[in-house]
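[step 3/7] fold_predict: job queued, chain A
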Amino acid sequence: MIPHSRPTRVAGDVEAVVRVLASGRLAAGPEVAAFEDALSRRTGRAHAVATSSGQAALHLALLGLGVGRGDRVAIPTYACTALLNAVLYVGAEPVLIDAAGPDGPDPFNLDPDRLTEARPLAAAIAPHLLGFPADIALLRAAAGAPIIEDCAMAAGARDGGREVGSAGDVAIFSFYATKMLATGQGGMLLCDDGAIAARVRDLSTYDEREEYRVRYNYAMTDIQAALGRLQLAHLDGFLAARRAIAAQYDRAFGRPVPRRPGTEPSFFRYPIRCRSDPRAAARRLADLGVEAKPPVFRPIHRYLGLDPAGFPRAEALDRLILSIPIYPSLTEEESRAVIDGVKRVLP
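[step 4/7] structure written:
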């Protein structure tokens, strides 16, 4: 079976872990500080705080912006539940926003018109879903509120020549095992506001404090950071490999994935449009040795029991879109097998 996702290993990763083990410093230390510095320099942000996960970074981002009980926070319904969790952690009210929809140039990201209709808002979380850059300036204007730029799927993607993570009031990254940068678990929060950064760093660990307040065990370890630094050094190569496979798929299927002009996606996922049930197509592909999945397991409005009619574009994406394997370690033989399988199942 060709897996839908696969971690990307790099030369020297075992040695990096052994080096940290030999140092005797396993928790947050110099490796974490170096990783924070490297990603902040790459994205042009003034401050970076490494975290134990992308969801922890989202939680801290909301706290850093002062979002709390009773505040309204916009999140996409066509996204994973980590966004919903973070909003509920701070006691805020999640306001679900439909996707832009399958027939436009930016189908997977937030619909700015629906975002405007949702005002007033304390904040909005805007993912670059599947690695396709969202227009953060447009979404900030639509929301009339601070934007948390969710780069969990999009490290290295660019919009108008500017790398993602550089535009939001706060930006977060995830380094889960199959993400663009893989440390097993881990995340990062970036911003330019020193007060937000100080608040977030204070909340991310709880030990040895003069005064008590609720804080969290959200620190990254030096082992994770050592892996993250290596991964970041190879990010441009990862992006080149993903884009080469995406171009191969574009040629093979004759229908490039829609993308907003002026953007360079990371191609964390390669979504294809089905004529019928994508889950049935995934089962047929599995019979041919290719694992494929809907890129979003279930839209959030369904978890909350909300009327699907209120989210027609997310519903359309769920009925139409299937994600096929695309990652740097996908071999030429495997990519040809994926293409052959898709052509047989989705002629």
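[step 5/7] annotate
The first strand starts at residue 47 and ends at 51.
The mean pLDDT is 96.
exit 0
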